[in-house]
Design brief:
The structure holds two protein chains of two kinds. Chain A is α/β, with parallel strands linked by helices. Helix content of chain A is about 25%, strand content about 30%. The chains are: A alpha/beta, B alpha/beta. The structure holds flavin-adenine dinucleotide (FAD). Flavin-adenine dinucleotide (FAD) sits at the interface of chains A and B.
């Protein structure tokens, strides 16, 4: 079994998923080669062959150009499987490669059991074991699902490759997330509001509990998308990553993108009406209750301590 | 201008799921169904584009059994002109490549200028279908879009990346756009529009007419993940739970000290 690992970099910086690809190859017991559009000065620690296209020349992610580069490497290496991170880069590029290769694509793989790929369904409430029927397979890996047990090491043998062909999608620049305001990273206690708060007026009760605990309030994405809470309080992959001493998730189901931002908190409490909500997997305590009744009650009791 | 928006009907994620008899998907009984969240943004964006360019024709496509018509009616009430219902009692058994193949076969030769899909579905969540449809039709595609603007054939879009950073891109129509949460504010259908929607055309096309490719992957089994961690679960009286929780926080964390 031979794997092609599609590493990822942005503005010359190598992104974290790269070593998860290496860990996946180890788990698959497969030999591997790596592909990267990136900076020669910032190479991944990797014992193997690295096909490197110069990021400065190629530019930031462009689907047509990256696809062609990957296909050129595939033509040379003939791998059985192509692995990418399930990231904004990976899930955009993977179907393009799969289509060109007439390959099956299995998305967001979290494990491999007896040659079958394990994927989450319905917000991780369910799982499926799937098998490709094609000669080649393209997979994307859920962030954090595969980790190296040791520090990454090694120096790759670099083979430089050059881009060819045009692109239909023109990259014009990055827009940074708005900064300023609250710094959730510094808070010892974070109480977060999820869609379960039901209406914007209920942000106040979440903020009140946070205040009673001497902390800050945060939010899951739908609460931010609805503009009930500003974006700098959003916890998760497309918001902040936080590690407070105490994190209280109120009416938050525990989607992987939210968990990625808070699961390393020291102590996690979830308040949820759904006993089976996936947030229960990371919570030290799950309170099965309607937050609209429980949160004000808890706040009053804490205030009167 | 011709616009296509593709939607899926999914169960409410707070439902209590059961595995079906075949053991490869969830049972479809006793579930509440709704429009895939990501697709609501796709429908809204398509309707906004139609309102902007005025002389547009907007079709909403959905694959599934008769039950999906309920969800299609919502899209029609939001402002789509016509529904294309691809009738299929086994849509859930089809993998993303087949679903994309069906959509591409429908769209082929119809010269859509814009095709909108959600960036993924809430149940299967493969994030493949929109991009695959584009590849099959030989069109460019932009995925995970949180901002979309159209002006005389050219599209300016912002893709959302990790950490909330956005990549700004430009592309010429025809193009496929996959829509991410927060892209706009999906409207609630008004009562008059719900009434009007009932009179809109709803085409019915058997899936056999459009499915020309084979599945490339199969599901061996579906199951509930093992509960990890095994944290404490509190249930019952509110005041008792609050007292218990406060005691735990005092014992296990330093925040109430
Ligand atoms: C690329 C990408 C990036 C993303 N980035 C992020 C991110 O950074 N952060 C993020 O949070 N999400 C992110 N998401 C969205 C994520 O997938 C989920 O959609 C989101 O986290 C769900 O938020 P939620 O848990 O508040 O809402 P839901 O999933 O709707 O859950 C609501 C919960 O509230 C519970 N509830 C309802 N009523 C009550 C009540 N009265 N009392 C108590 N509980 C109640 C329900 O049981 C349910 O568990 C991202 C998604 C994608 C695709």
């Amino acid at each position: 079994m031979k794997l092609l690992l599609i590493a990822e970099s942005r503005e010359g910086k190598l992104l974290g998923g790269t070593y998860e690809l290496v860990a996946f190859a180890a788990k698959m017991n497969a030999e591997s080669v790596m592909f990267l559009v990136g900076d020669e000065g910032v190479l991944p620690k990797y014992d193997g062959k690295l096909y490197l296209a110069d990021g400065k020349t190629v530019g930031e992610y462009n689907p047509d150009v990256h696809k062609q580069l990957v296909l050129d490497v595939i033509a040379q290496e003939n791998p059985d499987m192509v692995a990418l991170s399930h990231s904004s880069y990976g899930w955009d590029l993977a179907p393009r490669i799969a289509y060109a290769l007439k390959a099956a694509q299995v998305s967001e793989v979290v494990d491999v059991v007896g040659g079958e790929l394990v994927v989450p369904v319905c917000n991780s409430k369910l799982r499926c074991n799937v098998k490709a029927k094609t000669a080649k397979t393209v997979v994307t890996l859920q962030a954090g699902a595969f980790g190296l047990s040791d520090e990454p090491s090694g120096t790759p043998v670099v083979e430089k490759i050059v881009a060819r062909g045009g692109n239909q999608v023109q990259f014009t620049g990055y827009e940074q997330a708005a900064s300023g305001g609250v710094d959730l990273g510094k808070a010892q206690v974070i109480v977060s509001a999820g869609r379960g708060i039901g209406k914007p007026e209920n942000v106040a009760m979440i903020a009140a509990l946070a205040k009673a605990l001497g902390g800050e309030y945060g939010a899951s994405r739908p609460v931010v998308d609805s503009e009930w809470v500003e974006h700098n309080r959003q916890v998760g992959t497309t918001g902040q990553t936080v590690t407070p001493k105490l994190y209280i998730a109120c009416g938050i189901s525990g989607a992987i993108q939210h968990l990625a931002g808070m699961k390393k908190s020291e102590f996690i409490v979830a308040i949820n009406t759904d006993k089976d909500a996936p947030i229960g997997d990371v919570a030290d305590v799950l309170v099965v209750a309607d937050l609209k009744h429980f949160v004000p009650l808890l706040t009053e009791k804490i205030k009167s301590l | 201008m011709k616009i296509l928006v593709c939607i899926k009907q999914v169960p409410d994620m707070e439902s209590k799921f059961k595995i079906d008899v075949a053991g490869t998907w969830y049972a479809k009984t006793d579930l509440a169904w709704r429009m895939n969240e990501y697709d609501e943004y796709a429908v809204e964006q398509a309707v906004q584009l139609k309102e902007q360019v005025k002389d547009a024709d907007l079709t909403v496509l959905c694959i599934g059994s008769d039950q999906v018509k309920e969800t299609m009616k919502k899209a029609l009430a939001m402002g789509c002109d016509r529904g294309a219902h691809i009738t299929d009692d086994n849509a859930a058994g089809k993998e993303p490549f087949e679903i994309a193949g069906i959509i591409a076969e429908y769209a082929k030769g119809k010269s859509f200028d814009l095709i909108f899909t959600g960036m993924q579905s809430q149940d299967r969540g493969s994030a493949q279908v929109g991009v695959l449809v584009a590849e099959m039709l030989g069109l460019p595609s932009v995925s995970t879009v949180v901002h979309f603007a159209y002006d005389g054939g050219s599209v300016v879009a912002k893709r959302e990346l990790e950490g909330g950073i956005k990549a700004c891109v430009k592309v010429q129509a025809p193009v496929v756009i996959t829509c991410q949460l927060g892209m706009n504010t999906p409207r609630y259908p008004t009562l008059p529009n719900i009434m009007k929607a009932k009179k809109k055309e709803l085409l019915s096309i058997p899936v056999q007419d459009l499915l020309k490719i084979d599945a490339r992957q199969g599901t061996v089994k579906m199951y509930f993940p093992e509960k990890k961690g095994g944290g404490l679960v509190l249930e019952g009286d509110m005041a008792e739970m609050a007292d218990k929780l406060i005691k735990i926080l005092k014992d296990k964390t330093a925040v109430l000290a």
